[in-house]
Amino acid sequence: MPRSRIRFLPAILSLPFAIVDLNQGAKSAALMQEIKDRVVHLEAGHAVVKQQANVKEVPGIAWYVVNTSKWKDIPAFIRGSGAMSDYVPGKFALMQLADSAAENLSAELHASGMACGVLARLTNATVSQETIATPVPLRPVDQEIAAVTAMTKAIDADKIKATIDELSKITTRYYTTPTGINVSDWLVGRYRDLAGERSDIEISKYDHTAMNSRQASVVVKIRGTKKPDEILILGSHIDSVNWEDGTKERSPGADDNASGTATNLDIFRVLMANGAKFDRTVEIHGYAAEEIGLVGSLHISNDYKVANKRVIAMVQQDMNLYKEPGSPDKIWFVEENTDDGFNSLLGKLVDKYAKVAWAKGSLTAGSSDHASWKRRGYAAAFPFEHPQDHNPHIHSADDTTVNANAFSQTAAFGKLGLAYVAHFAGLN
By three-state DSSP, how is residue 20 classified? Predict the structure, then answer.
């Protein structure tokens, strides 16, 4: 590949990744064809490509894409955090960071006004170049299903609050701490209690030690009756963080993201109480280490892609507990790293079952685990609280239910999530 097509600093030519500018008009298609098997990240009209066939994982050190869209040039606190091979002005930087440096940088990015997901950890996994098709529901979204209506009415804001309270009492769920590591076992226990003796359900932990994370993800599978190889995913992340006072300090994470985790648990409770079964397999995921670069979801989505698993769609539940005082409940569908047609279909389910207002909006300075699935070629959606006016207390000791307590709104997200699996997985 001609050197003129690659952006990098000459002092570090041996580094494993480089940035390729795709904003070259008619040349871009040919260029993409040339590099397609080496692209590990796409952002802002540029690709990050592997310069080596395989990039060796080094314990305690990793490569990251750092969102710098807030600045025209790279601030000193970002430049000083690690080895920067290059950057696209006003877009992103490509950096090698030690684990401690990644923690410190995440804290400073948050303090500067950036949101979740501004660090994306790079691996050998390449980005899928397939055209992502809008998923097709097995039960049309234009038709209300009486059994689904009954189940959505059973979503219980008080039970969701009780789970959020339990999770928030844990000192911190940060992925390196003992309490953060143990939260996976706590969540597995809750799902097993609800599943009872059903033989079609599998509940397990997903190990991420290969990704330098002792915190495991949680995977709950309800095996499909007719199309078990087709998978619908409902996700959330289980970790929390306090970037203001230090990662070992109090980090209740009520909104970010006990809210999404508790919502999915209540969806499962209602499904089990009604003996729900589906044509397609339904999986509920609780992802580890989202706050430090989408680690758990990147690992699982890559493993699923390598195994050629047929993931039909993925919906992420992350932050649904906050709204401005006096404003009505509302569900926003984040536009970045999602499928617009899928968002519109889910909006119809909001109208039928959640019966709150909804809209689409941009969340430019952050992301969540849905982005991991989108980059591997799967359709994804991210229902969220207001993307331009979200909880200002996240990533601090103040992310509590005192400052975020829109529990009826959280229940609306639960109704949407339940309707999503019922229609797209095909409720029996």
Answer: strand
| Active site residue ranges | 237, 256, 290-291, 318, 395
Report pLDDT digits (tens) over 307-344.
999 999 999 999 999 999 999 999 999 999 999 999 99
Tell me, yes or no, whether 224 lies in a domain. Answer: yes
**Residue owning tokens 């307590």:** 405
Domain range for 28? 3-114
Is 270 in the same domain as 383? yes
Sequence-separated (6 or more) residues with CB below 8 Å from residue 236: 257, 260, 261, 263, 264, 285, 286, 287, 316, 317, 318, 369
Same structural domain for residues 22 and 161?
A: no
- The model's pLDDT over 54-95, given as tens digits with 9 standing for 90+, comes to 888 788 898 999 989 888 889 999 999 999 988 999 899 999
Q: Which amino acid, one-letter code, is at 329?
A: D
**Per the domain annotation, does 260 fall within a domain?**
yes
Instruction: Give the model's confidence band at 116: pLDDT under 50 very low, under 70 low, under 90 confident, else very high.
Output: low
User: Which residues lie closer than 8 Å to 4 by C-beta, 6 or more apart?
Assistant: none
Instruction: Examine the pLDDT at 45 and tell me if it is beyond 90.
Output: no
Count of CA atoms in the C-beta half-sphere (13 A) of 13:
2
> Cβ distance 63 to 121 under 8 Å?
yes
Q: How many CB atoms lie within 10 A of CB 326?
A: 5
Tell me if 188 is assigned to some domain.
yes
Q: Does 274 lie in the same domain as 390?
A: yes
Looking at the domain assignment, is residue 191 inside a domain?
Answer: yes
197 and 297 part of one domain? yes
- Does the predicted model carry a pTM greater than 0.70? yes
Sheet of 6-7, strands arranged across? 6-7, 17-21, 46-50, 39-43
Compute the distance between CA of residue 349 and CA of residue 417 in angstroms, rounded to an integer: 9
Among residues 233, 220, 231, 217, the alpha carbon closest in space to that of 194 is found at 220
Pairing of strands 92-98, 61-67: antiparallel
388 residue type, one letter: Q
For the chain, the domain total comes to 2
